[in-house]
Amino acid sequence: MPPETTEEDLEAADVPDTAEVASIADLLASFPEAAFSAQRYASSDVVYHTISVPVADWVGMTQAAFDAGFDTFVDLTAIDHFAEAPRFEVAVNIISMTEVERLIITTRVPYDDPTLPTLTGVFVGANFYEREAYDLLGVVFVGHPDLTRILLPDDWVGYPLRKDYNIGAIPVEFKAGSADL
């Protein structure tokens, strides 16, 4: 049976810095306000890279990553960091199939103006993911070709994945003849 991995082992493990990943080092050189981090998945030796950028560099960094070979769109998501400012984090997860590298580009937008430019001009596949982030968290993607609700009815009020959203209750009506448990 193999020995268990400890926190010290994980910290001592070789996680590449930007100099060891040439395509990422080149990206960072063009975006001086970008912040880089490399991490390992908790249960494996696989490393992924994260670059955090200001909103102004969101599309530029994503386009530069695409041009550098990160040409496979995986997903886009938004997260509500309720007690932090800026409150909403948006992340796009992309892969370079030739270099076998994963890159996650993130940015943060405030509660009072949760707007970002759309990534549909770089990755067409971002379309429905941006609509989902809009529908459930209220992040507006400026320039999106059809930014409408995708999961909830058009007349729905609010954004249910926001951490301050009132949960409420929906009455459940059972059909006649159903058994009460």
Can you tell me about this structure?
This protein is α/β, with parallel strands linked by helices. It has a single domain (7-142), classed as Beta Polymerase, domain 2 (2-Layer Sandwich), CATH 3.30.460. 20% of the residues lie in helices and 25% in strands. It contains four helices and seven strands; from the N terminus they run H-H-E-E-H-E-E-E-E-H-E. It has helices at residues 7-12, 22-30, 58-67, 126-137; strands spanning 35-40, 47-52, 72-80, 88-96, 101-109, 115-117, 140-142. It has a five-stranded mixed β-sheet with strand order 1-2-5-4-3. Strands 6-7 form a two-stranded parallel ribbon. Strand 4 (88-96) and strand 5 (101-109) form a beta hairpin.
Task: Using brief descriptors, characterize the structure shown.
181 residues, Beta Polymerase, domain 2, two-stranded parallel ribbon, alpha/beta, 25% strand, elongated
Which architecture does the CATH hierarchy give at level 2?
2-Layer Sandwich
Spans where pLDDT lies below 50 across 5 or more residues:
1-7
Please tell me the overall pLDDT: 86
Give the SSE string. Answer: HHEEHEEEEHE
- CATH fold-level topology: Beta Polymerase, domain 2
Count structural domains. 1
Category from helices, strands and their pairing: alpha/beta
Cα end-to-end separation: 47 Å
